[in-house]
């Protein structure tokens, strides 16, 4: 039986062109490109069609891309086959994650939240490795109307506190205009973090 998240996301990736279309890599990663070593192992968690993973793989990075949606992975895989890029895919539910310790040079977590991943990432990134994390944060002043599920929002300052003993290179909590037409004129609060695990 499929995971409930897989049912929702498979439907989006199979039937909604907005989710199927090619996207640019996340700017949080590209704006810190100068910090990256020249090669290594990247984990793209809840990768979707892995736009940022594709960007890194094109530069020679080895990428492991995980997602609960088979439909998303199929779209991503067709890109990878065209270009013979070094990306491996696995279908995985990340609500109850297991990842190897001290394994990844970079972890990407864009627009997905599973709180157990925060402690998992702390162990799975190698010393000196980098975490790029961007997702929604609860708005202290406006009730989140779009999706009221507290499991989908970080609390204000929660991400910074979770990595307070790491070298925080970038941290901001800011408003982002919604791209969706139904939600036009509504902004959502997001958090963006780049942090390096101490050596
Ligand atoms: C908003 S998309 C973000 C995709 C990608 N990280 C990006 O930056 O474009 C959220 C992704 O989380 C995945 N997802 C949702 N629930 C999941 C779960 N339980 N385990 C793993 N991935 C999940 C969805 O399939 C979807 O691809």
Count of helical regions:
7
Compute the separation of the termini in Å: 42 Å
The backbone outline, from C-alpha atoms, is globular
Determine Rg (CA atoms, Å).
Answer: 16 Å
Largest sheet: 7 strands, mixed
> Percent helix among the residues?
25-40%
Order of helices and strands: HHHEHEHEEHEHEE
- DSSP strand content: 25-35%
Side by side, the strands of the main sheet go 3-2-1-4-5-7-6
Mean pLDDT over all positions: 92
Low-confidence stretches: none
Ligand species = S-adenosylmethionine
Q: Given the helix and strand composition, which structural class is it?
A: alpha/beta
Number of strands: 7
Secondary-structure blueprint:
Blueprint: H1 4-15, H2 17-20, H3 27-30, E1 41-45, H4 51-58, E2 62-67, H5 70-83, E3 87-91, E4 104-110, H6 116-124, E5 125-136, H7 158-162, E6 167-177, E7 187-196
Parallel strand pairs: 1-2, 1-4, 2-3, 4-5
Antiparallel strand pairs: 5-7, 6-7
Helix pairs in contact: 1-5
